[in-house]
Each structure stands twice: as structure tokens, then as C-alpha cells.
Amino acid sequence: MTDQFHGAMSSANVSALWERTSHGGEGLAEAPHLWHWETLDPLLDAAVAATDMDTAERRVLVLENPAYDASDRRGIGLNMVVNLQILMPGESARPHRHTLNALRFVIEGDGGAVTTVDGKPCAMEPGDFLLTPGMCWHEHSHTGETRAVWLDALDAPLHFHFDTNMFEAGPSNDIPPQLPEAALAAPGITPVSTEWTRPYSPLYKYPLAQVEAVLRETPPAKDGSRRIRYTNPLTGGAAMPGLDCYMLAPGQGSETQAYRSNANMVCLAAAGEGVSRIGDTTLTWAKNDIFTCPRGNWISHRATSDDAKLFQLTDRDVLAQIHYLREEFAD
Ligand SMILES: [Fe+2]
Fold this sequence. Notes:
- By secondary structure, the protein is α+β, with helices and mostly antiparallel strands.
- It is 14% helix and 31% strand.
- The protein contains 5 helices and 22 strands.
- Fe (ii) ion (FE2) is lined by residues 96, 98, 102, 138.
């Protein structure tokens, strides 16, 4: 009878829910992984030797999370990919646009590298944060004298899940009107514009010097840490859909309040040195190291130098927008 039942279900393209054993992955936290800069750095030079910009759309190394080795998943986290992009003096990367939201965090350079976003040139100095939101034209050029390296992060897995990935090669065209920076220069005063209806910040560049100035004046939390969020000045929300970013300055000698979330985070050590506890793993990090903080783990950070800062990119706003986000803090 049972076999007849299963045969009939199979013929009818039906299955029995009660016979499934998996109830989802929440609570099964991945272990974190850390990429040391001293390992990555020589690979960047090797990438320059291995390819040129006439043959590569972008000279990019993809960080592959070993937690995904046994699966067909790729990239650094559930909803994010993180790459390292290298551009040498005199090189350029041609314009294109895509539905994927992308951001850049500059690791190395002399300010000669420029990303142009929908016609706005943004010079790239170490520590600067840049947006290239979905369907914005973007291209890179470099008139400086030293190697330029930046972290690229994209919400590619979300687009692959929804099958919404679309790519268009340049030349740039149909660039929409932009809001001038001067219209966004006063805190708490924003233009009322019927022209700007896009779901991301009209600021495409957040300079490190401004982030440091705000961090200095930010009152520390009880655990001694200071944290800022990169926001869209028109909404106060995340600067861009898909990726929600922060800069954390943990207090030296004191651990940040432990928290656990069903969102994912990747940290880049923007400055200094420190130690992070992620689940049962303790990671020791130094400048430019990159590590994952996968969902489900209890997470805390501690600075071991007074200048330590962690650039943090997360998918938490995606979960918040659809009311899936769950976060808890230790006492
Ligand atoms: Fe791109």
C-alpha cells in the first residue's frame, strides 16, 4: 500500500512533507574563515603578471570560502561575494553596468585610481568607501604611480537566487541626472527632489577622513566601542540595497558586547590589530586581513592596538526589509 502511495505521489508530482528530515539550516553556524593579507599580497602581484586589462574585464581575485568546498555555492558568504581588484598605473577598466549592487573599500593606492559612477569621478584613497549601485555605469582608471587595490563586494548570490542578474557593456549611455554633493553637505537638510527616486544614496563616495572625524565624536558604547553606519542621507537607511556597511572601532582591552544574528557579516581590518571571537573560534587579525562572521555565531571583537578599526559589510538590511532579521545580545 505504501509503495503504491509513493508511486502515485511520484506520478502526480507530489511528496509527503512529514517524511522530510531537514527543517532548515538556522542554528547550524558555519565556522569563520580568515584570509591573511600577507598571503593575499603576493597573489595580487602574481595576478598582475598573469593578466592585462586588454584581456580581462576586471583583474579580480575572488575570495572562496572553504566552508562551501563540498557544495556548489561560491563566494565568501551566503548572500555576498568579496573580491580583490587590482589596477596598475596607466591601466583602465572599461565601463559596464549590472543589476548587482557593488561597493568598493580601498585598501591600497596613492589616490591616482578613480572610479567613475554614473559620470561622477570618485578618487580612491585608502580607507575610502564607494558605491556602485545596481545599474549605475562604472569604470576605473589610474593615473597615479603605485599599485591600487580595493575590496569589491557584491550581492551576487541574491541576484542568482532570484535570477535577476543582468549585465550591459559600455559605452555609458542614458546617465540619469545626479544630485550635486553641495546639495547634501548640510547634516539634517536634504533636498526634496522629484528627480531622485532611486533606492540608493546619491553620495557615491564616503571618504575615510570623514568617517574618522565622526567616529572620534561618537560617544562610546558601554563596552567602549564606537561604530558608524554608511547611510543614504535622503532616508537615513543603508547606503544601498543588498549591502549594509559599518565601521567599528572596538575599545582597546575591552571586548565588544557579544551578539548573535541570522544575518552574515564580513570584516576587513581597515587599521590596527585585534582579536575576534566567533563561535568557538578566536581569530587574531592585523591590517587588511579579511574574515567572515557567519550567521548563528556569538560574535565579539577586541582591539589590541589603539587605532584598530573593522570595516563591516553585512546582509542585515536585506533581512530587516522583509522582517526576517533576528538579533540578540549577551547580558
Ligand atoms: Fe561591475
